[in-house]
Design brief:
alpha/beta; EC 3.5.2.7; binds zinc ion; iron; 2 domains; metal-binding; binds N-(iminomethyl)-L-glutamic acid; 15 helices; Urease, subunit C, domain 1
Length: about 400
């Protein structure tokens, strides 16, 4: 099936595939073609160019996109989309003065979600999660990473990872799976964190790997959760088994997690709200991608990651939603890029690069996703009639999406 899209007001992110994530000045460049055409064939992008050079092509369908723009779908490289219930009560508690950390210290937070998940059947967990997945798809997300981490036991973690696997099979949206057993210490190991780490390494990790349920390994490296040496133990064991690190570091405190993660060739270090000079130096000497999560900062009222500083230091940089019930109950990547422009002072080109091509690198799918490139999957967003692409970020909170194509097919 060949579909030809014509009279595209501006076709964004048209590029040959960069083999590594964009850095520094390259982040400011967004290649586009005004008054363009785009040809897709079955599930793939086949050809594009200026309407002035439109070749004669026999097609099955032609779609006139006058006034509309086209850009690749968002890649969301950091989510916790599989969870049960919600944490609205903690939201109210925070409005009334408690902090995220205080709520967690009282047994809420991640442990609250773990309890709800334990009391939710696998089918129900799938049903709740698939609704979120379909909803972010309609908001233009064409690929996302999903973490476990609300199971915190062999059964619980495998239940979450099986749900992620089912979502992969069910949906055309590309999904990558991450094992985050070390998200919090469960109550059953309250006084013995080391024993929980032993249990992760000796019992949960081997099952996750032998059942092929995860590509990545994550640890919440933070005061009150897992120390740098805890993380190193887990990364040592998991990388030996072939999992690639993508870790939570520097959310509330800079405790040295970035340097340690880089030692284990982390693909990404995520959060980075609190950064010290030595963290920047460590990232400058590595290929690890910095992933910032502006909706978490927005929702919790914590500092934003110093994105401009990271980009200026030449560190490859991506944006993600962190969709989860506690610190970012939204997976709306349009809101992510808007917030990155408004609060982190990224320009629209940097924000779009960070949420498309660099985000694809941040989840290991840049050879197939993240740009309008012949041979890549035909995943793209068609906007409504908008004056410019910067308007998409300026017009925050409003839905400027006309339709979303995943694998060459329009979503309902
Ligand atoms: N900080 C650790 N994990 C999540 C929050 C998880 C939760 O509160 O349920 C995050 O990335 O913000
Ligand atoms: Zn997270």
């Amino acid at each position: 099936m060949k579909i030809l899209f014509t009279n595209i007001k501006e076709l964004l992110q048209t590029r040959d595939n960069p083999t590594t994530a964009l850095k520094a000045e390259a982040m400011k460049v967004l290649p586009t073609i005004k008054n363009a055409y785009l040809l897709i064939e079955d599930q793939k992008i086949s050809q594009y160019g200026s309407m002035n050079n439109l070749p004669t092509i026999e097609v099955d369908k032609q779609v006139d996109l006058s006034g509309k723009m086209v850009l690749p779908t968002w890649c969301d490289s950091h989510t916790h989309l599989v969870y049960a219930g919600n944490r609205e009560q903690e939201f109210i508690d925070r409005i009334n003065g408690l902090s995220y950390e205080e709520i967690a210290a009282k047994g809420g937070g991640i442990l609250n979600s773990a309890k709800t998940l334990e009391n939710t059947s696998e089918n129900e967990l799938f049903e709740q999660s698939v609704k979120r997945l379909e909803s972010v798809g309609r908001l233009g997300t064409g690929a996302l990473e999903i973490k476990s981490g609300y199971g915190l036991s062999l059964e619980g973690e495998l239940k979450m990872l099986r749900v992620i696997k089912r979502l992969k099979e069910y949906s055309g949206i590309t999904i990558k799976s991450t094992f985050l057993g070390a998200h919090a210490v469960p109550l059953s190991f309250k006084e013995n964190r080391q024993a929980y780490i032993d249990y992760i390494i000796a019992t949960i990790l081997p099952e996750v790997v032998s059942q092929g349920l995860a590509e990545y390994i994550d640890v919440f490296c933070e005061k009150g959760y897992f120390s740098v040496s805890d993380m190193e133990r887990i990364l040592e064991a998991a990388t030996e088994k072939g999992l690639i690190p993508k870790v939570h570091v520097n959310q509330f405190n800079a405790i040295g997690g970035i340097k340690a993660a880089i030692k284990y060739n982390a693909l990404t270090v995520d959060h980075l709200e609190v950064i010290e000079e030595q963290d920047i130096t460590a990232m400058q000497n590595a290929n690890t991608i910095a992933v910032a999560l502006p909706l978490c900062s927005f929702f919790l009222g914590i500092p934003y990651s110093p994105a401009k500083k990271l980009i200026e230091a030449g560190i490859p940089f991506a944006l993600a939603s962190d969709y989860n019930p506690g610190s970012s109950p939204s997976g709306n990547m349009n809101q992510v890029v808007s917030t990155a422009c408004i609060k982190m002072k990224l320009n629209p080109e940097e924000a779009i690069n960070a949420a498309t091509i660099n985000a694809a690198h941040a989840m290991g799918i840049a050879s197939t996703h993240g740009s309008i490139t012949p041979g890549k999957v035909a995943n793209f967003i068609i906007t409504k009639d908008v004056p410019s692409y910067g308007y998409l970020m300026y017009d925050f909170g409003n839905n400027n999406i006309d339709s979303v194509y995943i694998n060459g097919m329009a979503l309902d």
